[in-house]
Amino acid sequence: MKSKVLVTSNWKEFKLEDLFEILTPQQKFNAIDIVDFNGKYPYVVRSKTNNGIKGYINQKEEFLNQANTISFGQDTATMFYQNQPYFTGDKIKILVFKEQELNIKFNDNLALFLIPILNKAFQNFNWGSSSYNINILKKIVFHLPKNSKNQIDWQFMEESIKQTKQEMQNIINIYKLLANGGGY
C-alpha cells in the first residue's frame, strides 16, 4: 500500500470558537456517586480509552448532552466524538459544531478529521492546567484545508476519512480471508 503525504502548506488558520460553541453540561455526575453503570445512556469522563465512556447510566434525560458533539476533557484534553446523547462527569466541556453558521452538517467523518488536528493544537498544554479555561479554549488556533474559494474544504475532509475507512476495511477483509485459511 502506498503511503500518502498530506500537504498542509496552504491550509488556513482558525480558532476553536470559529467552528464550535463551547458548552458546560447542565449537570455533572460524579462517578463516586454512581452505583450502576448498566444504564441506557453513555457516561463520558476524562478517560483516554473507550471513547471516554466509563459506562452507561440512567439519570434525568433533561440533563443529557446532545448527540453529534465532541466531548472535551477539560484538564486532560481528551476529545471524542459522541454520536448519541450522553451524560458527563466533572470537567467536561461540550463542543457543539456551528452547523448553521458554517452551512455544513457535522458528522463522524468530519469529527474524525478534526479531532487529531485539535489534539495537535493542544499537545503543549499540561494536565490540570488552567490553560483549559473556556476563554483560552475559544482562542486555540489550528489549521484546516481550504478550497479554491479560500473556504474550509469540508469535502476534502469527508473524502479523506471515507477513503481511509475504506482502506482499513480492505485490510480487515484481507486479514479475515487469511485468518480463515483463504489465499491472498
From TrEMBL:
All copies of domain Type I restriction modification DNA specificity, residue ranges: 9-167
A GO molecular-function descriptor: endonuclease activity
InterPro entries: Restrct_endonuc_typeI_TRD, Restrct_endonuc_typeI_TRD_sf
UniProt key word Transmembrane: no
Alphabetic keyword roster: DNA-binding, Endonuclease, Hydrolase, Nuclease, Restriction system
Family: Belongs to the type-I restriction system S methylase family.
Official protein name in the record: Restriction endonuclease subunit S
Organism: Campylobacter canadensis
